[in-house]
């Protein structure tokens, strides 16, 4: 800081990083005001840049809000697209199955068994009777007065379960009931047998052996040493001395067919179905209906309506006009081209219609979904329920992607983009050794490439993103695709809102880059302005010092002249 002063009165003015005081014996000029005006003139360029940066930050936040809202729409649509994971979806609700149970008389069907259906399992009905549950084999030894006292038994006993791996346990005369239990349990993962001690009374303890798995009998042998008889596990004839629970298999009848398994979980009786048995109920039939999980589909549809309405509310908030007729202060994206594009794209997609193979025309109204006066969506739940229960195939056709093929040898593996062509004839060439060698449409072999048994659509063509698997011979296959509303909207929005590659991500990335560059320019201007402040302050300080010196000299001359008189 430069200070010029004299014994006379002075004034001070702030200049940011410096201050300059003009003395009464100098010029008397307010240098601080001059300096500040000059510096602020230079800083005005930085202020304009900072205003642009702030506006960009508001736009970035708004774009990220749009992105989040559109991704929420796509999350709700994902399972409705009738695509598998390999074709670009996280789930396919039309392939998800649920089991509906009925019957059982006075016992609730769900207390007797549960049925889990794998995705894609055949729909249909079954009649189930749980005749018998599988049980774990359980045998007991003789009771003893103490679980910690030596039993006086010695020898080697071998135990296991039928069909398993037996283990040998050495028993010594000094071993107690606890010692034998611990020795058996140390090998239980191999033998399949677990030991426990039950306190029968205050003076009676009993060793219990239990098979780890149901339906498997415990096997015992002591090589004639007599240790098993001594422990009371076998009788004189070598049979079980005290069989508490016999080993039994589960027995059920499925549509009149007897099914017997060692486990109460039966996963191999009907393809795609797993039966978990909880209670035997001989003579009582449980009805099992395997159907599409309509509740999940309905939940996804109503979730989509909610997600769309949230986006619609956001879009409307950025189209608000204030009382003055200009854009509302919170309408950051007022008249924004991307917001207009997205709004129109979504609206057009939701108003699209799908024509089924039998000539029926479907739309959102077929699901009981209509537009309200403010262009939000509303759901007639009664109509939605009727459509879901009455014609789930129509719902699938309206919403999802479907492929038809004139050959069962051609399968869809992946299609992760919007459709370029919906109907075409694929001419496939297979070499004599069975190797897939080429595929073309309308004689154009540049549309596809082959890899193993895969036919892959080339980028830049109408078939980009399409991957088919073919296991047949040379020939032509007619292929048709139908892209429903949910799939069409999803793929379109994904191109706009995808986290790393969508239109919004690219715009935000560019705005971030612009802000980084403008911040650098603004900081440079501010640095140079402060340097200029410092130089200007020093310059005016020198002027003031010279003015003060001149004034002092003038005062001296006047004094001398007065003295000479």
Automatic annotation (TrEMBL):
Q: Does the keyword tRNA processing apply?
A: no
Principal subcellular localisation of the protein: secreted
Keywords, A to Z, come to: Bacterial flagellum, Cell projection, Cilium, Coiled coil, Flagellum, Secreted
What residues does the Flagellar hook-associated protein 2 C-terminal domain cover? 247-546
Which Pfam families has this protein been placed in?
A: Flagellin_IN, FliD_C, FliD_N
Taxonomic lineage of this organism?
A: Bacteria, Pseudomonadati, Pseudomonadota, Alphaproteobacteria, Rhodospirillales
Q: Which gene encodes it?
A: fliD
Assembly and partners are described as:
Homopentamer.
Q: Which residues form the Flagellar hook-associated protein 2 N-terminal domain?
A: 27-137
Quote the protein name from its UniProt record. Flagellar hook-associated protein 2
Task: Name where it's found.
Answer: Secreted; Bacterial flagellum
Q: Which family does it belong to?
A: Belongs to the FliD family.
Function (record text): Required for morphogenesis and for the elongation of the flagellar filament by facilitating polymerization of the flagellin monomers at the tip of growing filament. Forms a capping structure, which prevents flagellin subunits (transported through the central channel of the flagellum) from leaking out without polymerization at the distal end.
């Amino acid at each position: 800081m430069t200070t010029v002063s004299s014994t006379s009165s002075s004034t001070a003015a702030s200049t940011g990083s410096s201050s300059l005081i003009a003395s009464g014996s100098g010029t008397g000029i307010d240098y601080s005001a001059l300096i500040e005006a000059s510096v602020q003139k230079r800083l005005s360029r930085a202020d304009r840049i900072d205003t642009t940066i702030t506006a960009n930050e508001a736009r970035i936040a708004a774009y990220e809000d749009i992105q989040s809202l559109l991704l929420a729409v796509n999350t709700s649509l994902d399972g409705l697209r009738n695509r598998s994971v390999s074709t670009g979806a996280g789930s396919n609700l039309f392939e998800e199955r649920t089991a509906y149970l009925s019957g059982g008389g006075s016992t609730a069907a769900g207390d007797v068994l549960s049925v889990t259906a794998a995705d894609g399992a055949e729909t249909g009905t079954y009649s189930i009777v749980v005749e018998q549950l599988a049980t774990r084999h359980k045998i007991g030894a003789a009771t003893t007065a103490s679980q910690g006292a030596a039993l006086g038994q010695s020898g080697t006993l071998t135990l296991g379960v039928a069909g398993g791996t037996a283990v040998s346990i050495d028993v010594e005369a000094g071993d107690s009931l606890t010692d034998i239990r611990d020795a058996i349990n140390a090998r239980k993962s191999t033998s399949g047998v677990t030991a426990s001690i039950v306190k029968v009374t205050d003076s009676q303890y009993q060793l219990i052996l239990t098979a780890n798995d149901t339906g498997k009998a415990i096997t015992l042998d002591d090589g004639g040493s007599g240790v098993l008889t001594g422990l009371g596990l076998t009788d004189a004839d070598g049979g079980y001395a005290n069989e508490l629970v016999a080993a039994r298999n589960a027995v059920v009848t499925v549509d009149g067919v007897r099914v017997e398994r060692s486990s109460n979980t039966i996963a191999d009786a009907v393809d795609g179905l797993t039966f978990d048995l909880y209670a035997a109920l001989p003579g009582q039939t449980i009805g099992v209906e395997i159907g599409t999980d309509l509740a999940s589909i309905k939940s996804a549809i109503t979730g989509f309506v909610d997600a769309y309405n949230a986006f619609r509310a956001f879009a409307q908030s950025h189209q608000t006009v204030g009382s003055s007729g200009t854009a509302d202060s919170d309408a950051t994206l007022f008249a924004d081209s991307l917001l207009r594009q997205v709004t129109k794209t979504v609206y057009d997609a939701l108003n699209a219609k799908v024509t089924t193979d039998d000539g029926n025309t479907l739309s959102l109204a077929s699901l009981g979904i209509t537009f309200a006066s403010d262009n939000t969506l509303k759901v007639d739940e009664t109509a939605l329920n009727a459509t879901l229960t009455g014609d789930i195939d129509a719902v699938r056709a309206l919403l999802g992607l479907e492929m038809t093929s004139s050959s069962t040898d051609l399968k869809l593996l992946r299609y992760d983009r919007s459709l370029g062509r919906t109907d075409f004839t694929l001419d496939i060439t297979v070499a004599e050794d069975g190797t897939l060698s080429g595929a073309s449409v309308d004689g154009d072999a540049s549309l596809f490439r082959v890899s193993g048994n895969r036919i892959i659509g080339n980028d830049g063509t109408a078939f980009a993103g399409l991957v088919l698997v073919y296991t047949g011979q040379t020939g032509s296959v007619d292929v048709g695709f139908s892209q429903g509303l949910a799939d069409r909207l999803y793929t379109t929005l994904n191109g706009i809102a995808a986290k790393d590659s969508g239109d919004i991500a690219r715009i935000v990335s560019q705005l971030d880059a612009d802000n980084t560059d403008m911040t650098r320019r603004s900081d440079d201007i501010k640095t140079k302005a402060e340097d200029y402040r410092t130089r200007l302050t020093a310059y005016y300080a020198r002027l003031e010092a010279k003015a003060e010196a001149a004034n002092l000299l003038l005062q001296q001359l006047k004094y001398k002249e007065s003295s000479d008189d």
